[in-house]
Structures are given as C-alpha cells and as structure tokens.
Amino acid sequence: MRAAKYVILLGDGMPDGDAPTPLMTAATPYLDALAREGTVGSVKTTPDGFEPGSDVTNMGIIGYAPEEYYTGRSPLEAGAMGVAMGPDDVAFRLNLVTLTVDAKGVVMDDFSAGHIETDDAHEIIATLNERMSGDGVSFHPGVQYRHLMLWRNGIDRMKTTPPHDISDRNIKEYLPNGEGADRLRMLMNESQMVLKDHPVNKRRVAAGKKPATSVWLWGQGKKPSMPKLADRNGIDGAMITAVDLMRGIATFAGMKVIDVPGATGWIDTNYEGKAAACLEALKEVDFVYLHVESPDEAGHAGSYEKKVRAIEDFDKKIVGAVLDGVKAAGYDVRVMVLSDHPTPVALKTHTLSRVPFVIWPPLDTGSAEAFDERIVDEAALVFDSAVALNRYFIEGSR
Predict the structure, then answer these.
(1) Per-residue pLDDT, 343
(2) Which residues share a beta bridge with 90?
(3) HSE toward the beta carbon, residue 103, CA cutoff 13 A
(4) What's residue 301's pLDDT?
(5) 137-143 and 146-151 strand pairing
(6) Rounded to whole angstroms, how far apart are CA atoms 305 and 312?
(7) Any residues with CB less than 8 A from the CB of 85 and at least 6 apart, and which?
(8) Quick one: the chain helix, strand, coil %, rounded to 5?
(9) pLDDT for res 1
(10) Less CB within 10 Å around the terminal CB: N or C of the chain?
C-alpha cells in the first residue's frame, strides 16, 4: 500500500568496520527508537561489477538501476552545475588536492586540500581557466574541493582512481592510464606548476591551512539519459544536499533541487536548515531525499571522533527534527533511513559491505534494539539491490 508522502534520510558512509563502530558508539536515540518501532533490514547497494561510489549507490536507492543508467560520476555533477554537454563530450571530476613528498614518494596527503573553502577554490579554478583552458578543455567551479573539467569530443576509456581511495599512498600506481590518459597526466602536472606559487596557497600556508598543490582528474563519463521520476512512479520529488553529485542525479531525475544556505558537506553543515527545508518541501511534493555527507567525509579523513559527532548530529538534527515535524503535521508519511555504503575510518574509503536500513511506520515484522551494523547480520529482511528496496519502500510490499 502506498503512502501520501515519502522521506529518505541518507547518512552517507555511516556504517564502518570492526566493532565498536562509530554507529555503535554514537548516541542515537532517534535512530534507535525507529529501529525498535519500525521495520529493519539490510541491502546490497552496489551492483556486481561496480565500485561502491555514492553515485552508483544513491542512484539505485532513488530507484534507477546503475546497470541501465550510469555513465560516470562527473556527468551527473555537470548536470547539477548547469554545464552543457554534447553527446561526445566527457566530464571529469576535478578535485583540488594536497600532494606531499616523503620517503614513499609523492603522496596523496589530502584529497580535499584541507576542505578548501569555496571562495579560495573558485579563485584557483579561475586561474586554471586563464592559464590552462583550450584545445577542447575547460574548467568549471563547484563547491569546496569538488569541481569539474570538460573535454569536448574527449576520450572516456582511461582508468582513473578516486583520490579519497588513496589517502597517504604514493600516487604513482594510481595515475590515469589507458587511452587518453597522457592528456590527463599532462594537465595534472601543469596544474602543479600553476598552483606552486598561487596567491591563494600563499595565504593558506600563512594561515596554517593546507595548500591546493594539484588537480586530480577522475570519475569521467558522457551525458546520461534518465526518465523523470514522476513518469516512472507518479511521484514528484525534491533533493536536499550539499553535493553536486546528488544534485546531478536529482536534475536528471526531474526532481526539484533545494539549496540550503550553509550546507557544506562537512561537520559544520547546516543540519537544522536541511531539516526545515525537508518539512517545507513536503507541503508541495510527494517525496523528499535528504542527503547528509558529513559521516562519509569523516570516514575519509580517518577520524573516529568526527564520524561519531557527524552521526550524532545526523540523528538529533536531521532524523529527530524531521520525525517530530512530520508527526506534528499529521502527514500520512513513510520514512526510510539508511546509508549508501560503509566508509570505515581505518580504511578511509568505501567498501562493498551491505548496509542497514529502517522504515517507519513498519511495513513488516522485524525490529532491532539499536540502529547499527548488527542489523546486517541479524535482520531477516534482505534486499539484493537498492532498486528492489526502493520498490518495497514506495509500494509498501515485496
């Protein structure tokens, strides 16, 4: 049976590795109450043959099979940024990163250049465009360290590596390789010369911050074609996120993208503003997808303490605030809380492990005392794809 309203609250990268995990340690009274009152289960969010990226996993959770619609991460971000792509153009995610030299060689010190502020990053991207664009290549500013390079009539068959997967590692074995990779490596090397004495980096070093010493190109792909969400299941939707990737998925799905001032994707994000925006959006649309990036970023940073804090803030300021709001409004609403993939702090990258979910009000029997990774081993309700879980969540039956 369908509900009148739907809400998905997505805590990116919340699950972890060995116990006690941050999700077990964090004080999460709202999530735990949902686990006791709702229906819990586990889901395999990454299809066979894919890497456990937020692009692939979130696309499936919204209901789009990556096997059918996924063409790469960066084209989704291009859609969010309003960067027009022709059918033969290739978009690349451009991270501003900090590379250092030690006994290992050239090392990925920080995949986010110290979570560089957006104003600093935009100044750098403007310089890259001034000194490096041409011959079909252009640079486009995004948010914080996340930006885009477009290669008109480019090549997309090379192998690239997400920089957050290689923290503290020598980059030599992870540089782009394959057809077209020479061009990417040349651009990355050229960026290092441009950024070496950049005024932004001089200011950052003087302030005790990490400089952006290089660009890192990855996540390439061509423009996807996706049917609108309303045409697929008759539901109009809205996306609340700080991340261009998620905005891009929403844009191609025909969902309304809601910008929240102060939403950063880090632990300083405007949680309260996101929750308020969700409740306001429910007055107009049937479905709201609220994405919180901070647990994933803390996992990539290898910080157990920050990940616990991010999860606790997600529980209180997102889950608690939204639940209280929908109850007060008296909506006929169905809420699902889950993550897209684990991001263990010990590994600083994503893994393929299944993730727990909870749906409230309950659709089936099966509860738990707490919302954490133990649900994956103990719950009877199991889905082998995120698309199947989405169908169950929307339709109310298997």
Answers:
(1) 97
(2) 151
(3) 0
(4) 92
(5) antiparallel
(6) 11
(7) 75, 78, 91, 150, 222, 223
(8) 40, 20, 40
(9) 83
(10) N
pTM exceeds cut of 0.70: yes
- Alpha carbon distance 5, 288 (integer Å): 8
The pLDDT of residue 143 is: 87
* Residue-wise DSSP of 218-280: EEEEPPP----HHHHHS--EEEE-S-HHHHHHHHHTTPEEE--TT--SSTTS-HHHHHHHHHH
* Alpha carbons 257 and 277: distance in angstroms, whole number: 11
Largest CA distance in the chain: 61
Token look-up 């090392």 returns 107
Dig out the tokens for 85 from the structure. 């792509």
In angstroms, the CA 237 to CA 281 distance is: 9
- φ and ψ at 290, to 5 degrees? -110, 115
What is the DSSP code string of 9-22? Answer: EEETT---SSSSPH
5-70+225-395 classified as CATH 3.40.720.10: yes
Beta-carbon contacts of 251 under 8 Å, excluding residues fewer than 6 positions away, are 79, 80, 257
Q: Cα–Cα distance between 256 and 237 in angstroms, integer?
A: 6
The label of the residue with tokens 């996101």 reads 274
Measuring CA to CA, which residue among 252, 236, 198, 335 is closest to residue 73? 252
* Residue 94: per-residue pLDDT: 98
Domain(s) labelled CATH 3.40.720.10 in the chain stretch across 5-70+225-395
Position 233 scores a pLDDT of 87
Q: What pLDDT shows up at residue 186?
A: 98
Q: CA 297 → CA 13, 14, 22, 60, 324, distances in Å?
A: 8, 10, 13, 21, 27
Q: What is the pLDDT of residue 207?
A: 98
Output the pLDDT for position 19: 96
Residue 104 confidence (pLDDT): 79
Report the alpha-carbon distance of residue 41 to residue 39 in Å, rounded: 7
Specify the 3-state DSSP secondary structure of 126. Answer: helix
Going from the first residue of the chain to its last (398 residues), give the mean pLDDT of each consecutive group of 10, the final group possibly shorter: 95 97 98 98 97 96 96 92 95 98 92 96 98 97 94 96 94 97 98 97 98 97 94 94 94 96 94 98 97 96 97 98 97 97 96 98 96 97 98 94
Please report how many Cα atoms fall inside a 13 Å half-sphere around the Cα of residue 116, on the Cβ side.
34
In the three-class reduction of DSSP (H, G, I as helix; E, B as strand; rest coil), residue 390 is classed as helix
